[in-house]
Write a structure and sequence with these properties.
Number of helices: 10
Helix content: over 70%
Largest sheet: none
Number of strands: 0
Order of helices and strands: HHHHHHHHHH
Structural class: mainly alpha
Distance between the termini: 27 Å
Radius of gyration: 17 Å
Oligomer: single chain
Amino acid sequence: MTVKMETCMKTDWLYSRVMTYRLLSEMLQRRPTLSKLIEWRKEAGRIRILSGQSNPLISMLENIPLTNIIQYAYDECVQYDQLFTEQRLPHHPRASEYLLSAQERWSYEATLNSIYARAGIAFKKMDQETDDHIGIELEFMSLLAERMAENEGNILEQHTAIKAQADFLENYMLPWVPAFCHELDAAADHTLYQTWAETVSAYLNEDLHNLRVYAAEQQLFR
């Protein structure tokens, strides 16, 4: 659901974006163990409260039943391994797998390296993820969102952060993430990853729109 213009003015919305991107990233980089599911369940509630909005993934996480959560965690860990370790998916969750030629893949990865370096961001990769892994790209968005939130009163910093985020969404995530989400939705048997897939493409598009609304309201793009 698109954030209303007046909501975009709130600090709470800025920080809800940080938490949302961090949650989306972690869910594809970490196995859904019992402790992680409990953590994600609480995080979903905080995101809903801060943003004043919900979506299918937030709602699903908030409503994970505590009565059988141990079995739920076991089942979802099995599903995670099937999808990402045993590679049930047609492609790995990385952008270069969705580009047509070797030249395109090389150029994309080189450009990503440059974008991360210019932003002064280096990632601590737990499982040797590549720079174009969807978890890393989502984590990059969470870090840019955090800079934007922390510099709410600094027009220059906010302008820079919004332009960086809008460009990354439009040119580096939205061209391939919907195709990955479609494959993940088709390959998953459980609602956790089906709902993740069904939610993410819509969220990225809505967030790009909301960034532009926020920028217009703050008169950051003239």
